[in-house]
C-alpha cells in the first residue's frame, strides 16, 4: 500500500521569501515521488520527480525537493517565492511500474500556496 | 498541440442522465489512466489501460462507470444514471510504455486539462 500526507493544507508567504511545502509518504516498496502543480483552470504540471537517483532533485521554476528515506519525507522548497507560484501543489507517490502496480499515482490532499506582494 | 486532450471540458447534466467523456493521449503513449478529483481533494485513481486492455479498476469505479479504449488510442469514460456525488473533475493521463521510458522519465504521467462534470 502507498499513501501521501501533505502536512499543510494552506501556506502563505510573501514574495521573495522562501517556500516550504511538506510531504510525508508511506510505501511498502521503493517509490517514485513527484510534485505536481495545478494552477486555476489549468491541467496538472510536473514540477519534479525522484526515481532513486540523486536524493536532491531540482525541478522547474527554481523548485527543488529532497528525498529523506529515514524521515519518509519529500519536502518541496524554493528559495524565493514569486507571485506566479501561487497555485495548488500535490505530492505524489508511485510504486515503480511493474508487477501489479502499473505505475498508478497516489496523490496527497494538496497544499494551496498563496504569495503576497 | 501534442499533449493529452479531453472533451468536453465542461459538462452539466441532470441526475439520472448518462454522460460520456473522451480522452486522446499523447500518440506514442500506450498507457492511459483516468483519475477523479473532487473539490478540495487530490486526484484519485479510477482505472488503467495498457493499449486496449483495462488492467486495473479502483473500487471507486462503481457498476455505473465503464471505460473503454477500443483501439489502444483514445479512451472513453461513461457514467450511467448520474448522481450528484459524481460531480467532479475527471482527469486523463498518459505515459510511455516501460520499454520506451528513459529512466529519468520513469512513471511520469502527462495530464490533460480535465472534464468538469456538474450533476444537478
Index terms:
heterodimer; A: 117 residues; mainly beta; six-stranded mixed beta sheet; four-stranded antiparallel beta sheet; 12 strands; 55% strand; globular; B: 120 residues; seven-stranded mixed beta sheet; 11 strands; 0% helix
Explain this structure to me?
The complex is a heterodimer of chains A (117) and B (120). Chain A has strands at 2-6, 10-14, 19-21, 23-27, 31-38, 44-50, 56-58, 64-68, 73-78, 87-95, 106-107, 111-116. With 117 residues, chain A is mainly β. In chain A, the strands form 3 sheets. In chain A, strands 2, 5, 6, 10, 11 and 12 form a 6-stranded mixed β-sheet that branches. Chain A has a 4-stranded antiparallel β-sheet with strand order 3-9-8-7, with no helix packed on it. In chain A, a hairpin with a 5-residue loop joins strand 5 and strand 6 (44-50). Chain A is globular and about 40 Å long. The N and C termini of chain A lie far apart (41 Å). The model of chain A has no long low-confidence stretch (mean pLDDT 89). In chain B, a hairpin with a 6-residue loop joins strand 7 (65-68) and strand 8 (75-79). Chain B has strands at 5-7, 10-13, 19-24, 31-37, 44-50, 53-57, 65-68, 75-79, 88-95, 110-111, 115-119. The relative contact order of chain B is 0.32. In chain B, the strands form 2 sheets. In chain B, strands 2, 4, 5, 6, 9, 10 and 11 form a 7-stranded mixed β-sheet that branches. In chain B, strands 1-3-8-7 form a 4-stranded antiparallel β-sheet, with no helix packed on it. Chain B is mainly β. Chain B is globular. Classes of the chains: A mainly beta (117), B mainly beta (120).
| Spatial gap, N to C terminus of chain B | 33 Å
**What global shape of chain A is seen?**
globular
Helix content of chain B: under 10%
Q: What is the mean pLDDT of chain A?
A: 89
- How far the N terminus sits from the C terminus of chain A, by CA atoms, comes to 41 Å
Q: Secondary-structure element sequence of chain A? A: EEEEEEEEEEEE
- Structural Rg of chain B: 14 Å
What's the pLDDT, averaged over the residues of chain B? 90
Assembly state:
heterodimer
Computed over alpha carbons, the radius of gyration of chain A is 14 Å
Give the strand tally of chain B.
11
Name the pair of protein chains with the most residues at their interface, and give those residue counts. A-B, 28 and 29 residues
Strand content of chain B: over 45%
What structural class do helix, strand and pairing data of chain B support? Answer: mainly beta
Helix/strand/pairing class of chain A, anyone?
mainly beta
- Number of helices, counting only DSSP H or I runs of 4 residues or more of chain A: 0
Strand portion of chain A, in percent?
over 45%
